[in-house]
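Justification of resources, computational component.

The compute hours requested in this renewal are based largely on the per-chain cost of generating structure records like the one below. Each record pairs the submitted sequence with a full structure-token output. That output is archived, and it is also reused by downstream analysis tasks.
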Amino acid sequence: MNQFYRNALHIPPLRRLRMFPIRLDPDTKSATVASDMEIKAVHTRKRDPQDRWPEIVMGRRAQKGRLEAIGRGEQAPIEQILQRFYPSPKRYFGTDHPGFNLDLDGRVEVITIDQLMRACWEKLLWFADQARKDEPRYSEGPIRRAVITYPTVAPPSVRQTIQKLIKDLGIADVRTDYDEAIASAIFYIMREYNTMPELGMESFKARSRIRSDSGWTQNVLVFDIGGGTTDVALIRLTLTEEAVFPPGADCGAGERYYKLTPKLLGST
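The structure output for this chain reads:
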């Protein structure tokens, strides 16, 4: 009976909100893409000769290329072969890592973590743009806004770096309001409670073990297992009800206004 009610009421909320996952990986047609990268070439920007712009292959193709390069037994040493491949550069993002030395056709290039991450985001934007061309339900036109999450334990300077790198790609509106743990918690709430807002709020209150004058509270423990890093975050979600009408006003059938506030209690 419990499963019956769940199937009857659990309408996919993302579809109701006109939000759809896209197939990022062109090889597997999956909504996720592996973070493996292979640098094929390095370009120089005319306006800034010191800025290197890596041309990369990402995902399953990079994984396959790495294995093939090792299996072919190329003339170059294995260390030189592996210089082109990076399984998870994100783990170095926001640190003082000096970057990578890359030997391309006898020419040594120094690629910084920021330059590699910018190339990664550029490739993801390209994947997204290609995927929406095959789906008539996606809107056309240039991508003008990007919402980018960041590691929960990252300092504020990382958000500033993200905005600068994404704006280099021509995206004028870059949102970095939420870290990865908060974003996961928001998605959890949307999926579980936003199908029918009236029932969703009552369900949230019924599941809350803490009830005070300030509202209803739940704690959510988020495990973010990414490409080479694992973050753990404890988040408090507080649901409060605010008055819609002034005291004594004729509110007719009435209505209610709720506000859900996340707060990061701790992370590691």
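The radius of gyration is 23 Å. Residues 200-267 form one domain.
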